[in-house]
Design brief:
By secondary structure, the chain is an alpha+beta fold. The chain has 3 helices and 4 strands, in the order βαββαβα. 10% of the residues are buried.
Length: 79
């Protein structure tokens, strides 16, 4: 499983819905200001290339990790 982390502010609703259909699981990590909320899209390894290609063609910035980061790990990365 691969996890694509995307800042909520980078996606329009239509983009979010399209990505949600392509992902196996979608989660939202909510943070208080001044931190941004993040979408976490879980993608099976078979769909990894197609999902990444879609993001790249759409010009959407993302972080990619092989293991789901904890909330604390995500927060530490924003400090």
């Amino acid at each position: 499983m691969w996890y694509f982390l995307i800042k909520q502010s980078l996606l329009e609703r239509a983009q979010y819905l399209a990505l949600q259909k392509r992902a196996s699981l979608t989660e939202v990590e909510l943070f208080n200001e001044p931190h941004e909320n993040w979408y976490v899209f879980a993608v099976e390894k078979e769909g990894y290339n197609a999902f990444m290609d879609h993001l790249d063609r759409s010009g959407i910035s993302y972080d990619l990790v092989a293991e789901r980061p904890t909330r604390d790990e995500m927060l530490a990365g924003m400090q």
